[in-house]
Amino acid sequence: GRAAEGRAAEDRAAEGRAAEGRAAEERAAEGRAAEERAAEGRAV
């Protein structure tokens, strides 16, 4: 019924937000790693 469809839509939305959060964390980690490499390059 409509209630079940609503719950399924909410589940999909929650999964999408979780996936976006993981992707954002990965990008942040990559950014920090790139900054560390750049800092090492300047230090040499």
Number of helices: 1
Q: Helix content range of the residues, please? A: over 70%
- Beta-strand content estimate: under 5%
Main sheet, how many strands, which sense, barrel? none
Estimate the global geometry from the Cα principal axes. rod-shaped
Low-confidence stretches: none
> Which assembly state applies to the chains in this document?
single chain
Instruction: Supply the helix-strand structural class.
Output: mainly alpha
SSE order, as H and E? H
Q: Rg from C-alpha positions? A: 19 Å
Nearest-integer average pLDDT: 96
The strand count comes to 0
Q: How widely separated are the two ends?
A: 65 Å
Q: How many independent structural domains?
A: 1
Region (Disordered): 1-44
In short:
Residues 1-44 are annotated as: Disordered. Helix content is 95%, strand content 0%.
